[in-house]
Amino acid sequence: MKNTTYPIGSAGKEWQQSEREQWRNQTSIKRSYQEEVVSKIAALSDRFDVEQYGALSYDTDRYPVFSIRSKDWNAEKPNVLITGGVHGYETSGIHGALEFVNTKMTMYSKNFNIIVVPCVSPWGYETINRWNPLAIDPNRSFYPNSPAEESALLIDLVNKMGDFLVHIDLHETTDTDESEFRPALAARDGLEYIPGTIPDGFYTVGDTEKPQADFQAAVINSVSKVTHIAPADSDNQIIGSPVTQHGVINYPMKKLGLCGGITNCVYSTTTEVYPDSVKVSDEDCNHAQVAAIVGGLEYVLSQSE
């Protein structure tokens, strides 16, 4: 019996190599990583230390991956990691990270060593996809011997950097999560697709093991000055998880292999911008990501006073 909710695969059967190839063959390049992202990274190299930390084997020339570091790295200052584009299709994660570097990073570098990885998954950026070409989700693959190149390269980079105090991972929740990516996930894994709802607004995902409620609240408060915060649904949930405070849910980051668990930092949050809302523009979404970073860093600074 064919899968009735997704055009690839058969109901109740996990995808094999042929289905994964069929999925990849229906993808196409829709925008340019080199023109829209790499060019912006290169333009920052006069003010920050830009380093290529690897390249994806799918096309090493087309998909180099970069980090941007504050200058004068000082062992006396705490380290901050900001990641974007773990899911390459989540546009404001990439461009919000770059906007933060361009407009705010120099100021906060007085107090922190900051490293920004603006686009972890450039193939996903170009094809507007959640997965990599092997139909693997990089944001479920942050663990030793990761099957996702994108995740493995970032793990290697982070492991060389020492301890981190803060990690902010920039994401989006989009309408296509429900129309495309969740049905595809169910089909890939041979499971029944159960429809869900997409929240209208910004929210954050904290770490179940170290939720840092006041830190999350500071991020939400900062973003609320830029865009609206997602309300809980009738079950007091957001995307199926209990709301712990306004605009905040928690996941077990390391257990799920999420990027948010890549370090042993004290303060971590995963941002979720909703770019499909009629209330926001692309610019608003980028500003919301910047506001989230600023809110988090300001809170951490307030704790050291």
TrEMBL record:
Residue ranges annotated for the Peptidase M14 domain, each copy included:
29-305
Q: Which InterPro entries match?
A: Peptidase_M14
Note the Pfam families from the entry: Peptidase_M14
> How far does the signal peptide extend, from start to end residue?
none
UniProt lists the family membership as follows: Belongs to the peptidase M14 family.
Q: What is this protein called?
A: Peptidase M14 domain-containing protein
Query: Sorted alphabetically, which CDD domains does this protein's record hold?
Result: M14_REP34-like
Q: Which residues form a coiled coil?
A: none
Organism per entry: Vibrio caribbeanicus ATCC BAA-2122
Q: Which GO terms describe its biological process?
A: proteolysis
Q: Which Gene3D superfamilies match?
A: Zn peptidases
Q: Recall the GO molecular function terms of this protein's record.
A: metallocarboxypeptidase activity; zinc ion binding
